[in-house]
Design goal:
The complex is a heterodimer of chains A (399) and B (374). Chain A contains 13 helices and 14 strands. With 399 residues, chain A is an alpha/beta fold. Chain A has two domains: 214 residues, no CATH class; 152 residues, Nutrient germinant receptor protein C, domain 3 (GMP Synthetase, Chain A, domain 3). Chain B is mostly helical. Chain B has one domain: Amino acid/polyamine transporter I (Up-down Bundle). Helix content of chain B is 73%, strand content 1%. Chain B is built from 13 helices and two strands. Chain B has a two-stranded antiparallel sheet with strand order 1-2. In chain B, a hairpin with a 3-residue loop joins strand 1 and strand 2. Classes of the chains: A alpha/beta (399), B mainly alpha (374). Chains A and B meet through helix 1, helix 8, helix 11 and helix 12 of A and helix 5, helix 8 and helix 9 of B.
């Protein structure tokens, strides 16, 4: 009996810390999974109050299946989240699974230091969360207006992410990648998206942008066009600030110059005036730094090589392989030159040429001035070669 | 009579588990901050001095009699007058180290899972568990380590494999001869924690057979630990790059937070952080065990466990609860803010570890040898 009471005493002592040290708070913090509203997209914009925060859940997660959209303002992201939380009725916001962070253009032009700092510090967000900048608008506008009761911004950005993973004319960069490149090179790329009318309209909208034309019949079409977000290239960040955009047609050159290429299409016009679609399959760029006798960097030689397939021709047999190759090379060369020119003009090494120059000759690289300072005056010689490797099932223009 | 015995392979398992606590807290952040992208190679710089140090400890422990650990050996090596202050200093240091590990474990919980948590709750619960463990025989700790080691190694292997799969390998290069000074600096954190683990093993070696210090197991332990630390640094570098990783206070747990397994399972950091309670618990328990042992030896009490019941306070065992209490109280009061915690974590504790391992123990050995006491 004495031993029993002794053990009881020990057990009581073991439980003492829970009662005395606020540990009980751990249990009151427990949250039921079915009560959680899982937030998947966060929109961030500057606001006179500090920050305008918009949050959205994906379709199918809420009780009635609709995506939920919320908005709040506060002096900081954390206070804005608490503000939304306090106004979210019975919903228990759960931000640990945020999988997209969308930032408005004006906010990105002011600089992303605050947003990146928040993401790196927050115990809620993953540092590998994908970042997007909304070209020509506020993130809140996209978060609140994308989709309808069937889909929302989360589903749209999931689609963008999935689409870009299998293509070479765009890429989604995570907060970690952006922070990493900003820290290493002083500049970085960020995936740019725009709010556009969705392809799922009952009738085509007048003046709708190119690329959102194909329609699908749908009952009960709204009077307002159904909006979605779509990838439109890259935003260029220098010293944390958005300073330019690269359109999606030039983004293919970015992928090839960064050696992150993937499949995408080039449309060229042959001498007969027919539009020919060439599907770029893969490619890469070899870089050779040119140095003088003192080891000073005097230029760069870039040799871009790509493989392509003939996808569509206007009139069969009118273009031969040699002409199509030359057209593809010219088109690709023009885009790559434009991207390189932008990099030089901004003195922003968003293509990651500096680290590649460093890997080629680390000692010489460390002895020279910072690469982005040299970039503006650095002669870059670009050669582009495209090899047509197949013409699908038709024999015309066979390589 | 029951005996508190185990072999040196089991002792290495305990040291391997204990290593995971400081290794993940201190090594990647400090190593990458010092060596940049060369940090994954800095183990090459750390390994030779560590092997030499293991050789020294082997020679030192070769002087011990059956049942003697480093504490008894230190007490015997110096003059009788210096013996008590030396043992008291060692007891104090290990109690302080236990307190620091308690505080560091609480800090890890707060920064990774419970952002508004009170460190007191984690310190009190873990401190109490460690005190109970220190009251028992040290073989309990060793057996616990043998049980949890495969779980921790398996978890680490999965994390490192997944991290290395989705990585930017170019973040590891270039490393040139110019990086040699930073590479050497980057090896210092590894020297620090691995030397501390060797010392921990030496203090607990009284329960192992006297000849076991002469096998090559400790050299293999160092080689495997250095490989693990290299892989850890490489995984963090390829995931974040040197510049970003150097800014993160716990890059390993940031890495874990980022991982997505099979495109469906993510946010497993809570599970991983919880697993790291085991290394904390074993390290705190081992440090308390060494502390109380040094304290009892300093007061002339016969230290080895001889089958006493858990709450028996005979033969100087009454010193164990106050020792644990001091550690818990120190943990509660130390590092009230992040700046102090970083000072302790990055400066004071590593400096004390190195001071004990590389300065105090060789001095004691030299004094003992010169006086012919060992």
């Amino acid at each position: 009996m004495r031993r029993f009471f002794f053990r009881l005493g020990v057990l009581g002592f073991l439980l003492l810390p829970f009662a005395l040290s606020g540990c009980a708070g751990l249990w009151t913090n427990a949250r039921e999974v079915e009560d959680l509203l899982v937030i998947q997209t966060m929109g961030l914009d500057d606001d006179p109050a500090g920050i305008r925060l918009t949050l959205a859940s994906a379709a199918g997660l809420h009780a009635d299946g609709r995506p939920l959209r919320m908005e709040g303002r506060g002096p900081s992201v954390t206070t804005a989240i608490e503000r939304v939380r306090s106004l979210a009725n019975e919903e228990d916001l759960f931000c640990a699974h945020i999988s997209h962070v969308l930032i408005g253009e004006a906010t990105a032009r002011r600089g992303l230091d605050r947003e990146l700092d928040y993401i790196c510090r927050s115990p809620d967000l993953r540092i590998s969360v994908p970042l997007y900048v909304l070209r020509g608008g506020e993130a809140g506008e996209a978060v609140l207006n994308t989709g309808d009761e069937r889909f929302g911004i989360c589903d749209a950005l999931d689609a963008v992410d999935g689409d870009l993973k299998r293509r070479g004319d765009g890429r989604v960069f995570s907060a970690a990648e952006v922070s990493q490149e900003l820290a290493r090179q002083g500049s970085a790329l960020i995936c740019a998206v725009a709010l556009l009318p969705s392809a799922s309209q009952e009738t085509p909208q007048e003046g709708s942008p190119q690329g959102a034309a194909e329609t699908m019949a749908r009952e009960g079409a709204p009077s307002e066009p159904l909006m979605t977000v779509s990838a439109v290239g890259y935003g260029v960040l220098k010293d944390g600030r958005l300073c330019a955009f690269i359109d999606r047609d030039k983004a293919v050159a970015v992928g090839l110059l960064r050696n992150e290429s993937g499949p995408c299409e080039l449309v060229v016009t042959d001498r007969a005036g027919s539009r020919v679609t060439i599907a770029l399959e893969r490619g890469e760029t070899a870089l050779r730094p040119l140095r003088d006798g003192d080891g000073q960097l005097t230029g760069l030689e870039l040799e871009l090589k790509a493989e392509a397939a003939l996808s569509e021709t206007g009139a069969a047999g009118e273009a031969d392989a040699g002409e199509l190759t030359a057209l593809a090379e010219a088109a690709l060369s023009e885009r790559a030159a434009a991207v390189l020119q932008l990099s030089k003009q901004l003195q922003a090494d968003f293509l990651g040429l500096g680290p590649r120059v460093e890997r080629a000759d680390p000692a010489a690289y460390r002895a020279q001035p910072p690469f982005d300072e040299l970039l503006a005056e650095l002669p870059i010689r670009l050669t582009v070669s495209v090899r047509l490797v197949r013409s699908s099932d038709l024999e015309d223009a066979r390589p | 009579m029951k005996e508190d015995r185990f072999d040196s392979a089991q002792l290495r398992a305990l040291c391997a588990v204990c290593l995971l606590s400081p290794a993940l807290r201190f090594c990647p952040a400090a190593g990458i901050a010092a060596a940049g992208r060369a940090a994954w190679l800095s183990m090459l710089a750390a390994l030779p001095p560590l092997l030499l140090y293991a050789l020294f400890l082997r020679r030192f422990l070769a002087c011990r009699a059956e049942g003697e650990g480093l504490a008894e050996l230190c007490g015997r090596a110096v003059s009788p007058r210096a013996s008590r202050p030396l043992l008291l200093a060692l007891a104090l240091y290990h109690a302080f180290y236990a307190a620091f590990i308690l505080r560091a474990g609480a800090e890890r919980f707060i920064t990774t899972i419970y952002p508004h948590g009170d460190p007191a709750v984690f310190i009190l619960v873990l401190g109490l568990a460690a005190a109970l463990a220190a009251l028992g025989p040290s073989r309990t700790l060793v057996r616990t380590a043998k049980l949890v080691l495969p779980l921790l190694v398996g978890t680490l292997a999965l994390i490192l494999f997944t991290a290395l799969l989705s990585a930017r390998w170019e973040n590891l290069l270039p490393v040139t001869g110019q990086d040699l000074p930073s590479l050497l600096r980057g090896g210092l954190p590894a020297v620090d924690v691995l030397a501390a683990m060797l010392v921990l093993g030496a203090f607990l070696s009284g329960q192992t057979p006297a000849g076991s210090a002469r096998d090559g197991g400790w050299f293999r332990f160092l080689a495997v630990a250095a490989l693990f630390l290299s892989l850890l640094n490489a995984a963090i570098l390829v995931s974040f790059g040197a510049d970003l990783a150097a800014r993160l206070t716990r890059p390993f747990f940031s890495l874990v937070r980022n991982l997505v397994f099979f495109r469906s399972v993510e946010r497993v950091e809570a599970l991983v952080v919880t697993l790291w309670v085991f290394p904390d618990f074993l390290l705190v328990s081992a440090a308390l065990f060494i502390s109380q042992r040094c304290l009892r030896l300093a007061l002339g009490k016969n230290a080895p466990w001889q089958g006493e019941r858990l709450f028996s306070l005979r033969r100087g065992r009454w010193l164990i609860p106050p020792c644990a209490l001091c550690a818990v109280l120190a943990a509660l009061w130390m590092a009230p803010d992040q700046k102090t915690f970083l000072f302790l974590s990055v400066r004071l504790v590593p400096a004390l570890n190195l001071g004990i391992a590389l300065l105090a123990l060789p001095t004691v050995y030299a004094v003992g040898k010169r006086a012919g006491r060992i």
